[in-house]
Design goal:
The complex is a heterodimer of chains A (about 300) and B (about 400). Chain A is mainly alpha-helical. In chain A, about 75% of the residues lie in helices and about 5% in strands. Chain A has a single domain (about 20-310), classed as ABC transporter involved in vitamin B12 uptake, BtuC (Orthogonal Bundle). Chain A has a two-stranded antiparallel ribbon with strand order 1-2. Chain B has two domains: about 25-140 and about 275-350, 3-Layer(aba) Sandwich (Rossmann fold); about 145-270, 3-Layer(aba) Sandwich (Rossmann fold), CATH 3.40.50.2300. Chain B is built from 13 helices and 14 strands. In chain B, strand 2 (about 60) and strand 3 form a beta hairpin. The longest helix of chain B has 21 residues, at about 1-20. The chains are: A mainly alpha (about 300), B alpha/beta (about 400). Chains A and B meet through helix 1, helix 10 and helix 11 of A and helix 2, strand 8, helix 8, helix 9 and helix 10 of B.
Chain lengths: ~300, ~400
């Protein structure tokens, strides 16, 4: 296979990881931007989406219903969480929020284990997408292309929602100065709940779409949560646009790093040392990238505003 | 007053003596029972308890009480729970232990105390070699065995060009080394080590596809295996590249994989389709009780339970006579569900190693099917380094 084709294949993989990260980052960054709330349990909503989807898929054999169950279920859990558990925490210190939502991670992991057991559960690629497609000389899984398509469609939908609708205008206003929005007579509580549920639903969508690719098991939300946090920091807290570009950058940088770093290391040093250093450096790459971004632009690449990051 | 105290002490002595006669023999069970690795520990536990339950709460005719502890895949936690078992519960037998790093953390502590440790999974090389102990028995394998059998199979098949993939940690490197040790006549053209927490293998799979090897050797246990197999199948590579594996497609991952794993190969010591009578009985009972096909982890633990059953029967439950109990364990006088079974000098099994492929069983379920027996009466590579102390 030509190097150019290999690079294209890696680029598509990076893009696919990127859009998945965007679905998670969009909700997280909005919640942080508008409510100044640190939600570590966002990964749990991703996990719940995957489990709701898998359960619906097992009972109905329809991937469309699985998506509906995942999005609806995670959105509903988000709504209930916001109303009954988290409202009291919005005014509290970030450290309190971190502690409380870390507790939620443990709670949800254990709950899933009690209901579905500790083993990973079954969910497969929908029949129609269980194939590969030849693009410009490379063979690529159709399902991953579908993820890219859905992710880009959702990104466009969010753009329209945020930029062109009244609700979007309020969300943008909330991200800029929540107190002023409330002072102008907007029910900021209602807006918060809406944003939180929307973010939860997007996390659920990411979960169910990742389900056929990764192992659906308790604790699956944590590794992806860390990547998501990196994305929203690079993109700028509270900025959907920032989350979108940062997610794609992180996806591509991470994938290309994993693909080429071990080979690069082998050309620089002895084989054994390279085998140890290559993967380690590759997995550090996005954190190095984040450090550089923070050093050059402390507010992130596309900061929503100054107030949101106070 | 004095009389009262004496009477109380006397009463106390009597009641504790009476208690000692009726209280069951305590057996400690340590395994990973939470987190992503929990399915392995759960299978070990379920198989052990199944035999005890079948025998009416007894092993070898002796009433037993199993004290279950979760080591959480944390060596410090494992140390704490083992301390508790040794000091508070005063157990004389401990079984289970899922991961090699946990085994390394507790092995010396347990055997130095003169407590018998029946390992039913992890078999790290030091325990089989230089650090071997008369108090340690394994009913599973030395870690390398499960890779060596795959290497032998690849040699028998005449593969020339093989790529190895594993997580970037000690066990991953050990398995690849074990594979290379017994792979003759061809070369491992590339070794790809992925970070232990990496969930997506698309970048690596694209590279593998571009190099077109005859076969791929992989070690991805648990959830990592689910990720790998799904992504490999979705990339369409299962049509062109043979996958040979260790601990990747097994009883713990197949329920989540089903058809995606069809055709993949795995090397180990036992499969649910073994025709021997003891195994047929075990598999039928396990499926009936737990409603799933037993994994190799269940099989290993069931044999540990059978081993204890045989030794306790021979010694009438007297674990205190350590010499006699040791001899009874060493004799391994039970019908192993794997067929051939005896202990080598380092008290690891000397056994046949098999290759399996993933196929549908008679009920249409995706399971492991015996393909061949590349290694017969296989002794692990570290037995020679073990100087076994007399008891």
């Amino acid at each position: 296979m030509m190097t150019a084709q290999l690079a294209l294949s890696h680029l598509l993989n990076g893009l696919q990881l990127g859009v998945l990260l965007f679905l998670l980052a969009a909700g997280l960054t909005l919640v942080f931007g508008i409510m100044s709330f640190v939600n570590l349990a966002h990964g749990s909503l991703y996990m719940l989406g995957a489990y709701f989807g898998a359960a619906a898929f097992a009972n109905t054999d329809s991937f469309l219903l699985a998506i509906i169950a995942a999005v609806g279920g995670a959105g509903l859990v988000g709504l209930l969480l916001d109303r009954f558990a988290l409202t009291k925490l919005y005014a509290r210190d970030h450290l309190d929020q971190v502690l409380a939502t870390f507790g939620l991670i443990l709670f949800f992991n254990e709950l899933i284990r009690i209901i579905w057991g500790p083993s990973s559960i079954f969910i497969q690629v929908p029949k129609a997408l269980d194939s590969t497609i030849d693009i410009a000389g490379i063979t690529y899984p159709s399902y991953r292309l579908a993820i890219i398509a859905v992710g880009l469609a959702v990104a466009f939908g969010l753009y329209v929602l945020i930029q062109k609708t009244r609700v979007g205008m309020l969300i943008r206003a909330g991200a800029t100065n929540a107190n002023m929005v409330a002072a102008l007579g907007v029910n900021i509580k209602w807006l918060n709940t809406l944003v939180f549920a929307l973010g939860a639903a997007l996390a659920g969508l990411a979960g169910v779409m990742a389900g056929p690719i990764v192992s659906v098991q308790p604790g699956m939300g944590e590794p992806v949560l860390i990547l998501t946090l990196v994305v929203i920091i690079i993109g700028g807290l509270g900025s959907i646009r920032g989350a979108f570009f940062a997610a794609l950058i992180v996806g591509v940088v991470d994938t290309l790093g994993r693909a080429f770093m071990p080979t690069l290391m082998r050309s620089l040093m002895e084989r054994n040392a390279a085998d140890a250093a290559g993967p380690a450096l590759a997995s550090m790459l996005i954190y190095l990238f984040m450090a550089v971004v923070l050093a050059v632009k402390p507010q992130g690449l596309f900061p929503a505003n100054v107030a949101a990051t106070r | 007053m004095h009389k009262l105290v004496i009477a109380l002490i006397a009463a106390g002595c009597v009641s504790s003596a009476a208690l000692a006669q009726t209280s069951p023999l305590k057996i400690g069970f340590v395994a990973e029972l939470s987190g992503p690795q929990a399915p392995l520990g759960q299978d070990q536990y379920d198989a052990l308890m199944m035999l005890i339950e079948q025998n009416g709460g007894k092993l070898g005719g002796v009433p037993v009480q199993v004290i279950k502890e979760d080591s959480q895949l944390k060596p410090d936690v494992a140390n704490q729970v083992v301390d508790k078992l040794l000091e508070k519960d005063k157990v004389q037998i401990i079984t289970g232990v899922t991961f090699s790093n946990i085994m390394m953390a507790v092995h010396k502590k347990i055997t130095d105390k003169g407590v018998f440790l029946i390992g039913s999974n992890a078999g790290p090389s030091p325990v089989a070699g230089a650090q071997c102990s008369p108090y340690f028995f394994s009913t599973s394998w030395q870690n390398d065995n499960q890779a060596e059998v795959v290497g032998k199979y690849a040699s028998d098949k005449g593969y020339k060009n093989v790529i190895a993939m594993a997580p970037n940690y000690q066990a991953g490197k050990d398995f690849v080394a074990g594979f290379k040790r017994s792979f003759k006549g061809g070369t491992v053209t590339d070794e790809i080590y992925t970070p232990l927490n990496q969930q997506d293998f698309s970048a690596e799979l694209a590279q593998v596809a571009s190099k077109k090897p005859d076969a791929l050797y992989v070690f991805y246990p648990g959830g990592l295996g689910v990720n790998f197999v799904k992504q490999f199948q979705q990339a369409g590579l299962n049509k062109s590249i043979t996958v040979m594996s260790t601990s990747t497609v097994d009883g713990s991952t197949l329920p989540a994989l089903r058809d995606a794993a069809l055709g993949m190969l795995s090397g180990t010591f036992w499969g649910p389709d073994f025709p021997n009578e003891a195994n047929q009985k075990f598999v039928a009972a396990f499926e009936k009780k737990y409603n799933r096909i037993p994994s190799q982890y269940a099989a290993q633990s069931y044999d540990a339970a059978q081993l204890l059953d045989s030794a306790l029967r021979k010694t009438k439950g007297k674990v205190d006579d350590k010499k006699a109990f040791h001899a009874a364990l060493k004799a391994a006088d039970f019908k192993s569900i794997r067929g051939n079974f005896k202990f080598g000098t380092n008290q690891f099994p000397v056994q046949d190693m098999y290759m399996f492929d993933v196929a549908k069983d008679s009920q249409g379920r995706v399971s492991l099917r015996t393909v061949s027996k590349p290694l017969v009466n296989h002794v692990d590579a570290y037995a020679a380094q073990c100087v076994m102390k007399a008891l």
